[in-house]
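**Protein record**
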Amino acid sequence: MKILWLTNIPLPEASELMNRKSLPFGGWLVNMSKYLANTENIELSITFPFNSFSNINVLEGEKITYYTFPEMKNNDGGNCFLEEIIERVHPDLVHIFGTEYAHTLSMANICDVKKIKVLISIQGLVSIYSQHYMANLPKKIQNNFTFRDFLKQDNLVQQQRKFEQRGILEISALNKVKHVLGRTTWDRACSLQVNPKIHYHHCNETLREDFYNSVWDINQIEEHSIFISQGSYPIKGLHYMLEAMPIILKKFPKSKLYIGGISNHYNLTAKLKISSYGKYINHLIRKNELLDKVFFTGSLNEKEMCERYLKSNVFVCPSSIENSPNSLGEAMILGVPCVASYVGGVSDLLNDKVEGFLYQSDAPYMLAHYVCELFADTNLALKFSRNAREHALRTHDRNINLDEIIKIYIKIFELE
């Protein structure tokens, strides 16, 4: 069976073939692509947008052929580059990862005309995410412009509008196809509300390799340290975490917060590039006297991210909306005690008060309470660690997920 994946970013092997640094995103695609490429009777090709080339560029990997195409700015109902790639590959099935970009709808349109089977994987749903984008930020902050925002015409209101605009493409794409792939009650409910006729298939995600090979050890941690994996825009809820910190510090004054994905904003160059949200984060850090309590790690590769989890006393996922955050899955499979907001599909990953704590997303005082509970009770932290890891090992089982995706491909291929 010939399978063509359409992804939003290059996978590490493709980046290496282009002499580019691998991106620290899309980790769940890496292992699954390797396993599929090594599966008998599966021929896998992967295409992705890449603007450094003005035409299609073909990259021959060890077992996967990659096709780049120039990024689409607007949907035109089709795309000559994607059509050419389809003609070259002659896929039996096209698997699209992500719903909201113009190339998703273009590929769905092309496959519809050519009668090629299509499966869209739901990552997040921006048409829904846009409704949660501001995460209770003050109106003044929402409407503010920094120098960077003015140059890019990209303040928070404009960012939310982009989500809404991409949500229109997303809804069109979901109404164009017959099959979607999801993994939570949330994405099933939302996709079927958009298109009640759609065939919903369930398959969990496979995580990055390093996270299967390590286990959290309470004797090796930095005591009273908290880790959140990213915080560059409001949905990720960093401002909630910073509002919770003063409450935590009253009980545990040596607590520290580590934030992945972004660097600090205190040098002059960074200040010129700072967004309205970044400026507000700096305001909260100063207001709550957290300058010596908050540490930005910058972008971390797979190994560095794994090490950061393992050093942490508690992992927090404070988002205003998520489908099934891989950061939470990574923390759970390592056994890091977790506190997460009860949003989207999170409750399908973590059972409240059995494997960790879930709390109301706009209640940072409850976030603080649950972090303190874990700091204060080693036995509880160890119990959650064991239970979460056991659950995550089932959810992210590589062999089960590989078998399931192949079964789904065959089922769709055999359908008239």
